[in-house]
Sequence to fold (293 residues):
Amino acid sequence: MEIRQLITFVKIVQMKSFSRAAADLGYSQSAVTVQIRLLEQELNIRLFDRIGKQVELTGQGKRFLGYAHNILQEVNRAKLSLTDEGELVNPLHIGTIESLCFSRLPLILRYFQEHYPGVSVRITTSSPEELIEMMEKNRLDLIYILDEPRYHNNWNKVMESREEMVFVTSPDASPASEKALCVEDLLTEPFFLTEKNANYRRSLDRFLASKNLVLTPALEISNTEFIIKMLRGGRGVSFLPYFAVRENVEKGELKLLNVTDFHVFMYRQIFYHKDKWKTREMEEFIRLAAQEP
Fold:
């Protein structure tokens, strides 16, 4: 039995496909098929049922999966133990959303550059759903998202912190002079919003639908920094995490609106897959993210 066979076996389970696993690992599909056939012969069991394009674990395959994970974790533990006393040097791949990338990650990344120059950090931004799928397929070390509380038996949640969502505008815009507003009062203003798959945007859409209200944004874009620049440039309203606009509000460049009929909180959360061995680099990123106010 070879380690690469176990890696291939786990990858097929994650990808639910021989061909996709082969592409991800850089093998030909025939090489993946041979590896699994040899593994099945050595174990004297059938690991997968292959009916058409569907790939499913057999009962014996499901039992073997737990052993495969344990073996690979021990191999990773052995590798990492060799560098546990030295400098942090292992690469780190973080998945996150635009607003966190713009407002939360720069300080962490600067700290890594200053204190751990040997660590190569890669950042991937996408929606929470896409990031979770990537984590499930072992394409990310950690995901750092803003969402309603998420839980799953396959994940380790290592941080959860509540964050307020706010309506914000330019100090010169007409809503800025109002002491109290309802969401309906704002619908005549041009809205600059994140795309519909953003979780806090979905919460606003659900509220509007419950009131039979319709909002047609003047702009939809995933880039939070661009939205803030648009707001600073003149008239317009947006709905964003407070941490993303706090610095602009404190400088007087933007103003929070007191919207009395709609309040939403989301949660900054960090996860990694339960079958992922937590490296010291991952631990340090988690520590730094948890320290942020």
Remarks:
- The longest strand covers residues 155-169.
